[in-house]
Each structure stands twice: as C-alpha cells, then as structure tokens.
Design goal:
Layout: H1 5-8, H2 17-31, H3 40-56, H4 59-76, H5 79-83, H6 89-93, H7 100-106, E1 129-135, H8 137-142, E2 144-152, E3 155-163, E4 172-175, E5 191-197, E6 203-206, E7 209-217, H9 218-223, E8 225-230, E9 235-240, E10 249-252, E11 268-275, H10 282-293
Parallel strand pairs: 1-5, 7-11
Antiparallel strand pairs: 2-3, 4-5, 6-7, 8-9, 10-11
Helix pairs in contact: 2-3
C-alpha cells in the first residue's frame, strides 16, 4: 500500500512548496536522531517524514506522485530513486544536525541526498498514457476486438485491442509497453484505455444483470397473458401471470452478461409497464363503467 506523503507531513494536497518545507523542518527537528538517541520509533518517524519531503519538494517527483497516486508512484520509484538529488543540508545546518552522512547511516549505508548525484541512476519506467475508448453497449457485454490509432512520438500506430466479455464502463484496459519512453533507459510505460459505453435503446445494465422494459395491456395484467422479451441474441416468449402489478419484474436466468473466469452469467429482468389507454371507444367505455360498478 502506497504512503500518503501529504498526510505524513500533516498537509493538504494543495500545500505550497513553502508550506511543505516548513512542515518538514518542524517534524524533522522533532524526530531527528540527534535529539532522540536510541529511540527507534522517532527514527522511523524521521525516515517517514524525510521520504515524504524528498518526494514533495521535488517538482517532477511531486507531479508523478499527484498523477499516479501513492500506489502507482511506489511501483515506479525505489527508495534510492526517491532520495536521489534530495537536498536536506540547508535545513539541518542551521540547527547543527548531521545531513547526508546521517541518511547514509539510516538507510543501510547507501548514499542519499547530495551524495546521490554521483550514484548510478536506476532505470525508471516510462510514463503511462491514458486514452478513452468508446464502444457499443453490445460489445461491452459480449466482448470482441477494436482497432485504435495511437499517436506515438508523431507517428500513428494501429493497434488491435481485445475487449473482454462484460467490461464495465470506466474500467481501464492496460496495454503493456505502449506508453511513454523511460528517461533513464528503463522499460516504457503502458497505455491505459478507459472504457466508455454508448447507451442502448432497449437494455440497461446493473453489474452483470440486464433490464428491459416490456409493455403489456391492462387486460393482460388483470387476466394474464404472454409477451415476447428481447434478449441479446434472440426473442423469448414469457408468461405474465394474472394480477401482475406495474413495475414488477420477470427474471430470465442466465440471459444477462455472459459468464467468464469463474463468474456465472447474469440475468435478464423484464420490467412490466402496464399500458393505460388514453382514450376509450364506446364499447370499452361501457365495459369499464360496468367494471366500476363491480368495484374494480
């Protein structure tokens, strides 16, 4: 689980560079090992606030942390990467504390801070790219393939993308190696495709279930009837029992989103919409008047 560096320093994400420096100075002085000899808890706290400052005081690292979040940042930066080029000397010199040598001791003998400027750079993964891909409702349910055009470094690359069965709106598909180039000879980033789905005229989706509204006449609701219900691939005739209420649902088990990877198929629900006539002919008017006399 990634670390919330803003919370570690007691700051909001909107904190300025000056506020970040002031917050770190206050906490670093409080927990500095020279003030807390043989206090392991203070030492760990000092390490934690120093790591947060090393990231948030560096504009490039801060930008990547804000962009990718704590977990994404931790996947891209080792501890050595985090402390590379971090400068703590000015903060500690004014209080007479040790600086770079102290970090070398605290973090296992590796060189950090200013001394890291001469260390061998570690490969950093390139930046991930985000692209939105709109697909039809039916393809989101059944899966398939889409061809996309990726504009990479001024050239257009055609990519064939596999859409998994039942992909959710907002889900991101990862295409490895199609992101930005690494600035230090490491692997390229990935392409993240955020899926958008066009609405369907007949169906709506909730999780793995589908919903479809069917209209039935008032007589059918009272006496019972049978109606055709559209599924993704066919039409099913179902019975509507007498006394069915408006808004009730008929379940067609297994006719929703197809099952995959150990997940069962979803269901299709036909939602009953009882049609009340806006106008009655003479015969219907008479019959309804007779029904009203019976209390119906």
């Amino acid at each position: 689980m990634g670390k919330d560096y803003y919370a570690v320093l007691g700051l909001e994400k909107s904190a300025s560079a000056d506020q970040i420096k002031k917050a770190y100075r206050k906490l670093a002085i409080k927990y500095h090992p020279d003030k807390n000899p043989d206090d392991k808890q203070a030492e760990e706290r000092f390490k934690s606030v120093s790591e947060a400052y090393a990231v948030l005081s560096d504009p490039d690292k801060k930008r990547q942390y804000d962009q990718f979040g704590a977990d994404g940042f931790q996947q891209r930066f080792s501890q050595e990467d985090i402390f590379r080029n971090a400068d703590f000397g000015d903060i500690f010199k004014e209080f007479g504390f040790g600086g770079d040598d102290l970090f070398s001791q605290l973090f296992g003998g590796r060189s950090h801070g200013a001394g890291c400027r001469h260390s061998r750079p570690q490969p950093v993964k390139g930046q991930d790219f985000l692209m939105r891909l709109t697909i039809p409702f039916r393809q989101a349910i059944l899966g398939g393939e889409r061809q996309i055009t990726l504009d990479s470094h001024g050239t257009n690359e055609q990519l064939k993308v596999r859409i998994p069965v039942g992909v959710e709106p907002g889900q991101k598909l990862r295409i490895a190696g199609k992101g930005g180039a690494s600035p230090s000879g490491g692997p390229p980033g990935d392409l993240l495709l955020e899926i958008l789905v066009t609405p369907d005229a007949r169906f709506r989706r909730e999780g793995r279930d589908l919903y479809h509204t069917i209209k039935i006449p008032l007589s059918g609701a009272c006496l019972g009837t049978s109606v055709e219900v559209s599924t993704l691939d066919d039409v099913k005739r179902v019975k509507v029992k007498a006394g069915t209420q408006n808004g009730s649902k008929i379940r067609l088990r297994g006719f929703g989103v197809p099952g995959r990877a150990g997940q069962p198929a979803g269901d299709l629900y036909a939602i009953i919409d009882i049609m009340v006539p806006e106008q009655l002919d003479e015969k219907q008017q008479k019959l309804f008047e007779e029904l009203r006399e019976t209390g119906l």
